[in-house]
């Protein structure tokens, strides 16, 4: 490294970085069924059942801003994030472990608030806080969540199972969490020097809720199971529709075509985006943290999916050579790209 | 919180903080066998087998200093830390997941070095890197390791199983990692303003190795299993002998008496401690990160344990009322206390 210029992480993008770090890793343990590269790792329990495990780190100043993120909501959201990874494998979430790095400016009461939110989410979804670690931190709060779940081995859904002609389905709507974040950032800027700030949130409560207290879509996987629909691939929408769809296509070695006018966008999302001169479609495609589910089902399931009334079909899987495209209402094809490594 | 003074974390100590955060948590999921409060959480796999899971966060500037901690060694040590928690449950470690928070000053090559060290440890002990997460960080490097292992349910060893008259055993020697850290800190101070620093490490290579590249004592649990010795309680020595012994006593509701002259201390540890005017016994009792094993066995196992030739018997378990004591060579009893929450 003395003579060569070091490579900046941004130059690789997040996918490129992870690919480079895990390239050539060989499995040693026979219980490792799937390693890095999906929402969660899959570990064989030996009786037709598997354990799925995911890990996620959230850093103050990058992933959340404590000036407007109530700690109770943050605790809730962290759990949603962990659970979402597990249900995206079509598994039942059962435990979480929380690691905290806390700076001296954080009080015991503040940590209790964080835990209160985490416990509320766990209570709601029947999940246990099974352990954790608390360490000091030089600057700000760092949270790592490990989430665990169980499933029958043959019920699991991977990112890699999509095939040509499959329908691309989505729960909820896109870009709301992203606009919720923009709203909070705007009010923070506006009210920066004011003594008794009164932020203006009327009419945008839904966006705040989606950003500050998103719900994991356990209801969707339960409804799919009840109807006998097993997705061919699935992913938790954490990085944004474009990025997460590309992940499915990379893993499944396929292309995709989604139709702009079919992407569900909430009224409040469109209204605030227009007010802030942001293209609502950009919010919907690149805004992360919606924690909705993106999945594919065989074409033959079309009627069943429609009857469900819970999800939207936004396009279909194509051959790998066709790439990942957004089709505009006037028929234009726009190639989708994953955003670069995020250093907000 | 507006009228009441917030409680500083230091005022509770680390045990107190964790107790307060997890107090009153009720289990929801029947697969959660043991939650917070041991080296690892225990999850039922349903066929007489269990999965054990631990999580640990390491923060730059608190847990490591990159000015003298080579990234390759850091990767190795992080894995040792994870594995140690799993073997302290008498389980076989099988997978790890790594989360990284990286600031923009870290290059791709630096992360590759870190991974190289982690992979070397995984290769050596037959463990898989099964997943992870990479996020940005405002300040410095944050690493979280989740470690997983499996065991037969009735083979597990908890912190809570020690009973009166059990022998207290220890692998390796105490305080070496702590003195290794002191040596590195001293050379950093001395060589701070020098252009081509040449640190003086001769004669203390063992201490550096213990601090920078500790080995998880898988050999000990394997030897115990071969001899048919099942510890009644066990803990990984990460916080220091005094603190970790107190943990066993708290969990097992018992007291302990250990004998000062029986605590194994390496020659290099004593030599450097004396040179630096540190009491070697203080280093041995309070110095953390040795990653040796502290465990108890029934008194009847005494001969078997001695024959093993791998561990030292340093004392025995007493009634809870007697407290946790260090007995000096002249027969004095000194009560041991856990150090406060560490904000180095």
Structure description:
The structure is a homodimer of 344-residue chains. By secondary structure, chain A is α+β, with helices and mostly antiparallel strands. Chain A folds into 2 domains: 14-155, 60s Ribosomal Protein L30, Chain: A, CATH 3.30.1330.10; 159-335, Phosphoribosyl-aminoimidazole Synthetase, Chain A, domain 2. Chain A has helices at 13-22, 71-87, 108-125, 176-190, 205-212, 218-226, 241-252, 267-275, 280-286, 302-308; strands at residues 32-34, 41-44, 49-59, 92-102, 128-136, 142-152, 167-171, 233-236, 255-259, 293-297, 311-318, 324-327, 333-335. Chain A has a 7-stranded mixed beta sheet with strand order 8-10-7-11-9-12-13, with helices on both faces. A 6-stranded mixed beta sheet of chain A has the order 1-2-3-6-4-5, with helices on one face. The model of chain A has no long low-confidence stretch (mean pLDDT 92).
